[in-house]
Known about the structure:
Layout: E1 4-10, H1 18-27, E2 34-38, H2 60-70, E3 74-79, H3 88-97, E4 110-116, H4 124-137, E5 140-141, E6 147-149, H5 152-156, H6 165-183
Parallel strand pairs: 1-2, 1-3, 3-4, 4-5, 4-6
Helix pairs in contact: 3-4
Amino acid sequence: MSQTRIVVLFGSLRSASFSKQVAEASVGTAPEGVDVSVYEGIGDIPFYNEDIDVPGSVPAAAEALRDAVGASDGLLVITPEYNGTLPAVLKNAIDWLSRPYGAGAIKEKPVAILSGSISPNAAKWAHGDAVKSVGVAGGKIVDEAHLHFATWGERFGANHPREDAETVRELGEALRALVNAASGELVDA
C-alpha cells in the first residue's frame, strides 16, 4: 500500500482539551504506511465570508487548511459538544473546506467523525450536527469509523488518552476503517 495521509481536525481551542488529546493519541494508532497529522491552525482561520474568499485574497490560514485537507486522503474530525452542538471553530473550518462550491477540499473526501463530552451523552448531538455539516459540504461519511467518548473528563482526567488501552484500540479501529475507505485497500491491525 502507498503512503496514506490522514489529517485530524479537532474542535477545541483550549491547549489541553480532551479533543486535542484524542487527536494526539490518534497519531500513535496509525497503521503502517499511514501518516496521521494533527492540524493545529484551526483557531487562526477567520469566520467564513464570501467577500474574502476570492482568488488572490483568501486568508493564508484558510488557504493552509484547504491545502492540508486537499493533499490528504482522508479526514478525522473530533468534536466536543458546546451547548448541544459542534463548536463554531469546527463549523467554520468545514465551511471553508466546502468552498468553492462543488469543488471544495472536502468534496468526496472520506471523513470519520469522533465525538466526546463530559456528559454521558458523549456529544452525540454535536456528532449528528458534524455528520450533517460534513455531508452537506461534500465529504463522504465513513460510518464504521465513528466513535463516541462519554464522560471523558473522568476517563481522561488523570491520564492522556494515549495511555488508555481501550481508547488506543478504538482509535486504531476507527483509523483502519477510515484508511480502508480512503485507500480502497483492506488494512489489518
